Amino acid sequence: MWRHSRQLEADVQRWQEAGWVTPDGAKAIAEELRAQTPAFRLPAVLAILGAVLLGFAAMSFVAANWQEMPKIARLGLLGAALWGFYGLAGWLFSRNLEAFAHAAILGGVGIFGAAIMLIAQMYHIEGRPPDAVLLWCAGAVLAGILLRSNPSLVLAMLLAGLWSGWETSITEHVHWPFLIAWALISLGFVWHKWHPGMHVSALAISIFVVLLGYLLNEGHAHGLVLIIGLAVATVGILITTLHAIPALIEPARTSFGYAIAVSYAALFALQFIEDPTTNTLIATAVGTLALLIGAIILALRTDNRGALWVAYTAFSIEVMGLYFKSVGTLLGSSVFFLTAGIVVIALAYVAYRLHLSAQVQGRA
Amino acid sequence: MLNRIGPLTAVIIVAGLQTLALGYMVWERTNLLANGREILLDVAPIDPRSLFRGDYVILNYRTIAQLDGALLQETPIEDQNLYVTLQRSAEQGWAPVAASVTKPARVNAEDVVLKGRVDHVWRPHADQPTRIRMHYGIESYFVPEGEGLELEKTIRAGEMKVIVAVGESGESAIKGLEIAGRRVYDEPLL
């Protein structure tokens, strides 16, 4: 954010010198920039970190020796800590110190989790550990939605992942209820119009979809994952290029990058984990490289940096993977490097042509 | 929502609901301990090296930790709930007489139904019945600091029994320990 505005200031100065922007216009832009407060300020970040540390302090109470206290005193202490944090949050809200209030809320959610564990310890409740995580997650969602606390929603997403992962490790089956938790938390992010939260949601669902490939059909469902990834990528790129639904363009751009990542994760598993026959591997590898080059071209066309980064990374991993797979087996290393070189040069050529056509369009 | 109901109200709702959830956890447990039926279960001596993890004891119940597959008609799968009917006898104490994946509709008034979860199902030899390793949620006991070694000795001497409270739905909780016929470590409710 800071970097962006600093660069913009320099640009504006340059534009003013070139006569494209009037001095009044430059002043208005500078004021507008100053009015935009950065999303994260240092005190807020420190306050959040402080709350996280206090949360950990409370959790280490589990291991600490508090056996001497009677149960009722321990319960009282937990209740007081819980209400203390939320009370502090309410007071900070009333003083308009929102950032600190959100830190206090996060502290309260942390205490809630610690209290669940401590009560389970005090009463020898063993139960299913994921149930305790789910209860904590529910508390975090409640605080996240009711108090518009985005940090709590992020914590809730982490806890939902932990809950689901734990259930999956016990049952060794896909844990579909994760989708309910995911949808609820994601709705919170959408409702708060909090952009980083949408990335949290996209990342969480991407991991879930990729893991489906390892869990469904006795661990061989990567084809399904690929279909899901490609379908989302197609819808994403259609919405982005057709400009049909303006409200959905930004989410579509974001999902395109994640969908490419999901598709490539499936293709990686199909090539390097599933142990395919040589012919299948060659066909899949050619398809993968074509898909990734296509993704790079589309990302460049739509100026989608996130997707471009994903596609480039996937391309590098693919090339590395094919190299390790091909050494001594498939083709000679030299043939491999020849092919890879030709592909990369072709890619550079395509990028150059795109650049040219963009310039021509710009001039026209 | 914050704008509509005011931050203070929202904060009170969140803190209140979270307190209720914690309160319910405590209430459920104290209710079980206070009103559940008491049974006494033997614990088997186990390798002392695996006995302690931190300051809690792992309890290996002599009669119910492993069930004979012949106790029930169907073969259960791992992680499935299992209802074990326990009957008291003079020589064995509380021991399983039947087990089922659904809660038995009626049992003798003296018997107790304990709910557990299947950990593992296996067959030691092809001609032997299956064995089922069970988990009831009463396998670990947090020991007061510094008293772990003492407990370890009594368990190895085979003198310790665990007092378990069993609720109507088969839920169970450790209520206390009995050493050489004497009740020690009675769990305080609050």
TrEMBL record, chain A:
The keyword Cytoplasm does not apply. The chain crosses the membrane at residues 42-63, 75-93, 99-120, 132-162, 174-191, 198-216, 222-244, 256-273, 279-300, 307-324, 330-352. Pfam families: DUF2157. Signal peptide: none annotated. Coiled coil: none annotated. Keywords: Membrane, Transmembrane, Transmembrane helix. Residues 13-151 form the DUF2157 domain. This is Uncharacterized membrane protein. It comes from Filomicrobium insigne.
UniProtKB/TrEMBL annotation, chain B:
It comes from Candidatus Filomicrobium marinum. InterPro entries: GDYXXLXY. It comes from the Bacteria. This is Membrane-anchored protein. The keyword Transmembrane helix applies. Keywords: Membrane, Transmembrane, Transmembrane helix. The chain crosses the membrane at residues 6-27.
